[in-house]
Amino acid sequence: MTSAGGPLTSRLDLEAAQLRRLEQVSLLEATTLVLLVCVAVPLKHLAGLPLAVAVMGPVHGLAFLTYGWVAIQTVAGGGWRRAEATRLLLLAVIPFGGYFNLALIRRKRIELATAIAA
Amino acid sequence: MLDALYPWLKAAHVAAAVAFIGGLLAGAIALAAVQSDRFPATASTAFMQVVRAWDRRVTTPAILLVWALGLTLALQGHWFHSAWFPAKLAIVVTLSAWHGVQSGTLRRVAGGRAMGPGRGLTITPFAILAAVVVIVLLAVLKP
Predict the structure, then answer these.
(1) Chain A residues touching residue B49 (CB < 8 angstroms)
(2) Which of chain B's residues have a Cβ under 8 Å away from the Cβ of A85?
(3) ipTM score of the complex?
(4) Does any domain span residue A1?
């Protein structure tokens, strides 16, 4: 499983793949939360359509669980400051907050890409 | 229609839970073994790559299935209002979070990095087993 670039590159490749996964589930979690809070809940209370919440509630629940799991998995691999880890978990529960996490994850990816190129 | 599917969903949930617990225990025992310095560094890395591959291909999909099927069963059985279910849910959340930590540690060691100072990993498999016993008791007896 060691790549052609050697063990260090292999290790960095593993981290890069992990950050890509975190970015994808972060986007999914943030979007399902926005759809739940900004679309489904108003449809239920203003238009009398509870179906939207009945669908989006479990969908967001599973997306949130997946995000939490991937975030823990990413942080447990090392290289994250305590403040960054806290931010990852806290912003995810605020509508639109997950989108701000994407900037942090992308910065981490750029740092890693720079390390791989060096 | 969901009522007719109930036994099948339950069977699939139990099968996924068995696969998850098996993988979780295997990973915990492997990490404890590597931490005990019984393997040279290169052997540890190769060993962890095999354990991590199992974690990714079997254990992780299994926990996703456990959650999806478990929540479906809970909604179907109206268990959210019973006393035993929140206790079981809390233990499952803890085990899932621990799997996240363990999975990240497996990636770290499989990538060739050191595990860091000991964190009582030798007792982890026993703690997982104890949690599983409590989950089974709660699920079967529904106190």
Answers:
(1) 1
(2) none
(3) 0.74
(4) no
The distance of B60 to chain A (nearest Cα, Å) reads 10
A46: containing domain: 7-117
Residue B140 is classified by DSSP as H
Pairwise CA distance, residues A73 & B85, whole Å:
26
pTM to 2 decimal places? 0.81
- CB contacts under 8 A, A 54-113 vs B, are 58, 61-62, 65-66, 68-78
CA B137 to chain centre: 17
Angle at A35 between CA A33 and CA A40, to 5 degrees: 115
Q: Are A40 and A53 spatial neighbours (Cβ–Cβ below 8 Å)? A: yes
- Cα–Cα distance, A39 to A10 (Å, whole number): 43
pLDDT in tens, chain A (118 residues): 444 455 555 777 888 889 999 999 999 999 999 999 999 999 999 988 899 999 999 899 989 999 999 999 999 988 889 999 999 999 999 999 889 999 999 988 888 878 777 6
Number of domains in chain A: 1
